Amino acid sequence: MIGPSFPTVLGAAQRGDEQAFVELWRDLQPAVLRYLRVAAPAAAEDLAADTFEKACRNWRRFDPRRGSAKTWLCQIARSAAIDHFRSERRRRRREETYALREPVAEDATFGEGLSPWLERALGRLSAAEREVIALRVVLEIDGESAARLLGISPTACSTRLHRAVRKLEEVASDVLA
Q1: Which residues of 129-155 are buried (b: 16+ CB within 10 A; e: fewer)?
Q2: pLDDT tens-digit readout, 35-49
Q3: Helix (H/G/I), strand (E/B), else coil: 59
Q4: Cα(155)–Cα(152) distance, rounded to whole angstroms?
Q5: Minimal CA–CA distance to 79: which of 50, 57, 56, 58?
Q6: Which of 10, 40, 112, 124 has the smallest C-beta neighbourhood within 10 Å, fewest atoms?
Q7: How does pLDDT run across 62-85, given as a tens digit for each residue?
Q8: Alpha-carbon distance 115 to 56, whole Å?
Q9: Cα–Cα distance between 32 and 51 in angstroms, integer?
Q10: Does residue 5 register a pLDDT over 70?
């Protein structure tokens, strides 16, 4: 489709022809998704959907004299990825600020049936560390799904889990000593 009929399909999409937009999406979505999988692997699917939603609303702004539709969509995808990263950074700062202001009380209960030493050890972990342990160990959610829930890559999720378990072991040995 990105051949001789492309200007015709693009023009139809710009005039509001939904079928033409679907045809453009089928042809251009793989390229946008490949770009986003490199830029933001954990959020690529969601960001691709956001990209095409924004493109659908703004097709009239596309000017083929300034670049191809693929370039225009990748620019929208880049903006969506940057917005995503900024939002994640703000969210993490809020969580860290809250965690510093609101320390977990020693007598907090994390679950029924936990031994007192495990309760104390969990109380010394950060909220992010407890969250990854809860998802991966307690709920037995697979790494990719847990990463999606946390808004991080599967590698980052695995690393966070490893560090949290190691810290929990260190804290538990201090608590038991």
Answers
A1: bbbbbbbbeeeebebeebbbebbbbbe
A2: 888 777 778 888 898
A3: helix
A4: 8
A5: 50
A6: 112
A7: 787 888 878 888 889 989 989 888
A8: 55
A9: 8
A10: no
